[in-house]
Structures are given as structure tokens and as C-alpha cells.
Predict the 3D structure of the following.
Amino acid sequence: MPYRGLLLDLFGTLVHFDARRLPTMDVAGERVRTTVAALGALLEEWVPGVGPEVFWRVLVAVSEEMARARTENLIELPSRERFRRALERVGCADGWQAEAAVTLSRAHMATIVAATVLPPAHAPLLAALRGSHRLGVVSNFDDTGAAYDILARHGVLPFLDTVVVSEALALRKPHPALVRTGLRGLGLASREVLFVGDTFADDVGAAAAAGTDAAWIDTAGHGVPDGGPKPRYVLRTLDELGRVLESP
């Protein structure tokens, strides 16, 4: 039975993130590319005397702690919570933390959005697929609004029937809830949909748990890792998806 729908991962699959587009700042004599380099004026407004370098170090520590926790529990906390915890540690007043966190997180995300790139071949591919498939995006990302901003920035939203972002569900791939939500958004059964992603454990794992076939983008060319579920297809780039769908 040919696939009637496709669910695509966002980062590394549909769009790419170009860290070279991030601003830079000096940290202990080393130039670091980070969104925090763009937050100096806002930090001075909300936590006077706390410069970008100090805040960067605290934010990195908080981010690492949250990353370890979500790997274990698959719970996605929003970007604003990451900033709130960092602001708390640098002494932001309790009554200001919530608004300051939202303000800083939005500025951070605007910089992230501006650093995303849609490969030239992807728009024509989506246009071609749209004629024969229902399409959706299922992404691990801690800011739903920014995910929509990225899709709108690159003109992708008109091609999509559904968008599922982990922050909105408070769960992350490989939890199957994200793929199952995407299936409901497409109005299709699991056997009718192919999930496409570049992160083996998250994307192939989530697809297998939800009962869908997976196409894994093996960007590094290292081959399928031992153990765990196997993808139905292995691609090197998203551009190869058309060929896969045309094959019997």
C-alpha cells in the first residue's frame, strides 16, 4: 500500500541550522557563537550588572541539567522555563522572573529563527509531494511559536496539514505521542504514513513506537546503528525521498 501521508522532522531534516549566522562574543578570550551575544541590552534591563558572559555560563549549566533530565523522562519544558531558571540563579527578582524569561526567550528564539536555512531543493520537493500526499511536521523543539516562525519564514506552512511541536505536548520524541498526534492531524492510519527524520534514536524510535515506517537521513554516512528499531529506508539527504516514494 503506497503511503498517503508524510511526517517530517524539522531541524536537520526539513530545515538546517547554520550556527555561523549567530552573533559572537568573547568568553575568557575565546570567540563564542551564541544567541546570548544579542541579549546584552535586555539583561541590563532585567538584571543590571549581569553581563552576557556571566549569563551565558549560567544558561549553559541550566541547559545541560535540563537536557539530562529530558533524556530520561522525555518531558519537554519550554524555552522560557530554561531562561527563568537561569535568571533566578543570577539574582533576578522573583516578581520579574516570568516576564523577563519570556522577553529573553523571545529574543533568543528570534536569533535562532534567523539562523535557519531551507535548502534550495526542499521547497520544490514539498510542492511535488503536496500533490499526492498529506504532509506534516513533527519536531522536538522547546518553543512552538518559533517553530511556526521558522516554517512561515521559509514559506513551508502552506504545504502542511499539521504541525506538532514537543513543547506544546510537553513530551519529546522518541515518545510515540508526537507521531500519534501527527497521524491524527493528517487523518491517516499509522500504516499509511512514512516518518522522515535525521536523529536515529528520536525519529526512528518514535516512528517504531507509533507503528509507522521510518526513513532515516544518515547525514554522516555511518550506517544504521546496532540495536533498536530499524528504519524502512536509509537516505543521505531529504532530496532522495522522491526516489524512495516512487520505488515499488
The longest strand covers residues 134-139. The beta strands are 5-8, 16-17, 24-27, 30-33, 116-117, 134-139, 162-165, 193-197, 213-217, 233-235. The longest helix spans residues 52-73. Residues 5-17+116-246 form a domain with the Rossmann fold fold (CATH 3.40.50.1000).
